[in-house]
Amino acid sequence: MIIIMLGAPASGKGSVAEILSKEFNIPAISSGDIFRKNISEGTELGKKANEYITKGCLVPDDITVNMIAGRLTEKDVESGLILDGFPRTVKQAEELDKMLAKDNKKIDIVVNLETPEEEILERITTRRICKNSDCKAVFNTLLHPSKVEGICDKCGSELYQRDDDKLESAKNRLAVYHKETAPVADYYKNTGALYSTVLSKTVNRMKDEVAKDVIEYLRNK
Ligand code: ADP
Ligand code: ZN
Fold first, then answer.
1. Which of 123, 136, 173, 207 is catalytic?
2. 9 preceded by a cis bond (ω within 30 of 0)
């Protein structure tokens, strides 16, 4: 099973990916998490990526594609995987197709989480994340606040705001999303694998409902 998660920053890709990962017993691979891990460990990749990430720009395609290509050679992805945050450009989508074709694999579903334009920036700037790297639970001070402010419900660690979730960087990420990432959904439209669904606070569909719909859709496919 190969699942791709698409959507604006802070649309809930990671949360839905986590549920699908448990359901299908396949790893969820977040490109952003791999970059952040490399940054915190001070690796060469981390140093390069950090320059772009703090500004809210995309890490260049060649660096990102190489990183994912490396990850796809690991044993745990043999029976499937969920990609969260990759591909983020049409170029990356094309490169992914080539990588998969080499192994005779194909994408089963591209889950596109659509978020109303006016909600995206608010979602990004109100996101809070657990500092505990084994937990990384995601909260939102408006949509899904922790029970105790600033403290993770799951493990009791402190919550923090990513630097690139602060307003200036977030604005840039939103612009980059429209220019570079939104066209990726069109790219997948032609393949028949695209499954779009709206995540909005007005509709108030929670991540588990969306995950349930996706599971249902895959079962009936
Ligand atoms: P979000 O959760 O807001 O969607 P991520 O954690 O996926 O953000 O990504 C954080 C940052 O890491 C991005 O803003 C970008 O700078 C970088 N990044 C992650 N994935 C990619 C990618 N596929 N291509 C280029 N840059 C990426
Ligand atoms: Zn936690």
1. 173
2. no
